[in-house]
Write the structure tokens for this entry.
Amino acid sequence: MDPKSLDFKTSWEYAPAPEGKEHIKINARYEHFIGGEFVAPAKGRYFETINPATEEKLSEVAEGSSEDVDKAVVAARAALDKSWSKLRASERGKYIYRLARMMQERAREFAVIESLDGGKTIRESRDVDVPLAIAHFFYYAGWADKIRYAFPGKTPRPIGVAGQIIPWNFPLLMAAWKIAPALAAGNTVVLKPAETTPLTALKLAELIQAADLPPGVVNIVTGAGATGAALVNHPGLDKIAFTGSTEVGKLIQRAIAGSRKRYTLELGGKAANIIFEDAAIDQAVEGIVNGIFFNQGHVCCAGSRLFVQESVYDTVIRKLKDRLETLIVGDPLDKNTDIGAINSKMQLDKISAYLKIGVAEGAELYQSSCKLPKKGFFCKPTLFLHCSQSQRIVQEEIFGPVLSVQTFRTPEEAISRANNTPYGLSGGVWTDKGSKIFKVSNALRCGVVWANTYNKFDPSAPFGGYKESGMGREGGLHGLQPYIQYN
Ligand code: NAP
Ligand code: MG
């Protein structure tokens, strides 16, 4: 075929390939999971959870009040004292392992529900969220009977009862990051999922019940911010583990100041991806796209700022624009989709406001020419070109498929600009030179730096931020530490 006859756009069109949802069971209503039972909310109130890709109601979920939170904390304390702490560590490990196996058997169901409830692509939930969540349970199951070897010379003990609050961008994965290390270290927990994405945590509750985990070891109370606040303020907790926005993280820090509660905070980010002129450009462009556009930019460590060395700027931007044009935005359940639905109307409004702010600040807006579905919450993949350091779109977390682009001349300039935000969660370096990787990654003030790749996770690797991206680490041996105290 004459290559000139190839229409660049139509050659990227795919037939629909939707994942089936007929086999998925979502109850019409979900209660709290407290003391091993599904329990109606004390005030009898429920809220809807919807599919953000269609705006259709999926189910209704119990709204947690302070009475429900109290009941859950009491159940967690009783489980800690009466059952969980009495078990041999190896037995605790077996329960966590069993849970991982049961999740594995139901992986497809978890993936479809995650995409339905949160809007993320099935490719992401099937290939990233669910396998990684399971891997976390397997990994921490292995630690349960080795804790004393992990902290040599000390006698580690569990902290007690942990209140855990998670966001909507990785609902099941964040639940796994919270529950698995806490249980492995011998603690019991009360978890509050995000208001817009409670369903996979409640599915997990069904497995926890079926796995015969002693009642009260894991309790799940659903609700919005007020339920989270009730949990934070409950005097019966020994620790708060929070993942979410920096704004709420600061509120929590204030709320528990002066109390005996320990805390870990995993907060927002504004990661810089730095492309040097000696990088493999195609690979770098693909990594940038993966880092900000897949999962709708709903990733705390998303590479939302791009720094390109001046000499390769034109090439990188041309390739990036071409690639943007091929990204498929639409039905999250379609296996071809690259960018699914924005999680909620509220989040879409926030992103849309930033698009206006960026234009008003003088950045050049570029969006792909894709058509968005008529229903549901969607956003075109967006570049902001010719950005400057002081702009809000460069400094603030947008949490959507929006990339702000700047240029640089020297490594020093790239480093100082990359470090110049209130955040410090992650970063990326693209170069052919190992020495440059070491120099730049050591100089970046952030918890994770990926080199010639992006957004790669493993349960054995610690993750967490500097500055306003939070404190404490999750994952690996470091992730056990916040759930342990010493005699
Ligand atoms: P968010 O608004 O801070 O909410 C996080 C969780 O806190 C939700 O369960 C929320 O409930 C609850 N909450 C809200 N107000 C509260 C209060 N006053 N007291 C206690 N809990 C409260 O964050 P989000 O918008 O859901 O999530 C996005 C943010 O999470 C981004 O900033 C992202 O960077 C960050 N994140 C960080 C990491 C990390 O590891 N560093 C990982 C993932 C996400 P409702 O949802 O019902 O309001
Ligand atoms: Mg939902």
User: Anything to note?
Assistant: Residues 49-50, 117, 196-197 surround magnesium ion (ligand 2) (CB under 6 Å). The first helix runs from residue 66 to 82. The two ends are 75 Å apart (CA to CA). The chain has a mean pLDDT of 96.
